[in-house]
Amino acid sequence: MDLSLLKTWEPVLSTEFNKPYFKALSDFVNQAYAAHTCYPPKDQIFAAFDYCPFDKVKVVIIGQDPYHGPNQANGLCFSVQQGIKQPPSLVNIFKELNSDLNLPIPLSGDLSPWAKQGVLLINATLTVEASKAGSHQKKGWETFTDAVIEKISAEKKGVVFLLWGGFAHKKGVKIDSKKHVVIKTGHPSPLSANRGYWFGNKHFSKTNDYLIKQGEQPIDWSLN
């Protein structure tokens, strides 16, 4: 794996890189990409960190797995490559964005403009084999991303954590809620959203309200 994309995070995460689990994870990922089609592209595995340096993190959104279809995953949770059809969960995210902030539905599903403003868009598992959802779970990624969340929680303050769905809620135990804001809702997938667990959560406006109160620049959530 190319750790150069983690350059701004290296001082924070260097201890993780030297642990046996991370060496085993690196070996697994290198072998998986050599033997199978995997996503995201290998040079985008750590894109979330490259776009959003540690000292710029203001908001964290936690996903579960990268998309496992062709040309979808780009290393940012819920985001897809430019020009790719928006998956159902992303469609629902944009519907809530429109309802909450009266912003037009974005034409592109590429969320990198959010990441560049300090939104860390991180999946719990950073790689996946094509057409096999969850295929790279329990290989070490969860340990690594737990460490990332713990480092943010310990070394920063006033970060807004948006936890969407049960899987993200479980990650919440790694966050010091006395130092940070933790906002929970259901997952934006159609199954959850259609049961009333997503729409109306107003997470985008709540995030900006908090950032403004802290004297921080709010996030420009528009993508058009």
UniProtKB/TrEMBL annotation:
Keywords: Cytoplasm, DNA damage, DNA repair, Hydrolase
Domain Uracil-DNA glycosylase-like: 50-211
GO molecular function: uracil DNA N-glycosylase activity
Active site: D65 (proton acceptor)
SUPFAM superfamilies: Uracil-DNA glycosylase-like
Keyword Oxidoreductase in annotation: no
Function: Excises uracil residues from the DNA which can arise as a result of misincorporation of dUMP residues by DNA polymerase or due to deamination of cytosine.
Keyword Cytoplasm: yes
Catalytic activity annotation: Hydrolyzes single-stranded DNA or mismatched double-stranded DNA and polynucleotides, releasing free uracil
EC primary class: hydrolase
Gene Ontology terms describing biological process: base-excision repair, AP site formation via deaminated base removal
Protein name per the record: Uracil-DNA glycosylase
Primary localization class, coarse: cytoplasm
Highest taxon, organism lineage: Bacteria
Protein localization: Cytoplasm
Matching Pfam families: UDG (PF03167)
EC number per UniProt: 3.2.2.27
Any GO CC annotation of this UniProt entry: cytoplasm
Family indicated by similarity: Belongs to the uracil-DNA glycosylase (UDG) superfamily. UNG family.
